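Structure in, sequence out. Go:
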């Protein structure tokens, strides 16, 4: 069992949890993730990036958005509760060295897995420029933590409610047009965002790393659920990634695979809402 030491609501649908997991905290590196299973009765396993770790406390931090049944159940847990199974750290760590100028682009919940990479790049002596994007101001997360690490921070919202009204690709293109241009770009967020970040940097020959969050089951590469096409070859995100050359990823194929279980996911969310409504009515006086 992995006790919940702290829970915090970062936005309407985004939750931060600190979990007691001393062995994982000691071993984790930026870019790695864990697979979470709430309990053996409800057996779905989901991958979540390790957003931070505290070896003194023996804890790791996960940040997740409530989008499906498992994340709804996870968000319902409170401090003092526990998660039954946690496997990790998994995946290949981010390659961190002194590149020069590194542009880190985070979209929505993608800011969470970007955070430890920004920490690593900053500690390695890079100039770090961060672009954060969200649909609206209320969905932005970790702004102050990112600002403390960034040499330059650019905030974009789709609706213009905060920062610059633009997609993240607009300031990214401007940065690529600078002389000198960035030495590396790291983009994490929705697949469509990462696809267009890679297309933005391609004409400028700026190396671009993306972190993929595909459907996973076992985290060992045996189930094949997380397979993607990179450079025309099949790769498995859980063991070969999660980070890949963004200019080589077949994003269209990946996005089709992510929709493979949409019907079942919609049915599960509907059932979860019905269950919640039933429980609510049980506590209402007749």
């Amino acid at each position: 069992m992995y006790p919940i030491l702290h829970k915090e609501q970062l936005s309407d649908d985004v939750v931060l949890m600190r979990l007691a997991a001393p062995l994982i905290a000691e071993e984790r590196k930026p870019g790695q993730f864990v697979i979470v299973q709430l309990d053996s009765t409800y057996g779905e396993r989901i991958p979540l990036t390790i957003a931070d770790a505290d070896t003194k406390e023996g804890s790791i931090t996960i940040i997740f958005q409530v989008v499906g049944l498992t994340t709804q159940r996870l968000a319902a847990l409170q401090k003092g509760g526990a998660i039954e199974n946690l496997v990790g750290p998994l995946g290949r760590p981010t390659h961190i060295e002194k590149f020069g100028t590194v542009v880190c682009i985070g979209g929505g919940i993608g800011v969470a897995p970007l955070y430890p990479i920004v920490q690593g790049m900053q500690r390695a002596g890079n100039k770090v420029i961060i672009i954060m994007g969200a649909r609206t101001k209320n969905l932005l997360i970790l702004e102050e933590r990112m600002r403390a690490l960034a040499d330059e921070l650019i905030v974009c919202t789709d609706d213009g409610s905060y920062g610059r009204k633009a997609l993240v690709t607009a300031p990214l293109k401007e940065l690529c047009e600078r002389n000198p241009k960035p030495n590396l770009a790291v983009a994490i967020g929705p697949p469509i965002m990462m696809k267009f970040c890679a297309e933005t940097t391609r004409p400028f020959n700026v190396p671009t790393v993306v972190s993929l969050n595909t459907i996973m089951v076992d985290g060992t590469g045996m189930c094949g659920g997380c397979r993607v096409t990179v450079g025309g070859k099949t790769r498995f995100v859980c063991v070969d990634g999660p980070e890949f050359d963004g200019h080589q990823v077949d994003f269209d194929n990946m996005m089709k695979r992510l929709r493979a279980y949409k019907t079942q996911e919609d049915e599960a969310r509907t059932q979860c809402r019905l269950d919640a409504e039933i429980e609510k009515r049980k506590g209402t006086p007749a």
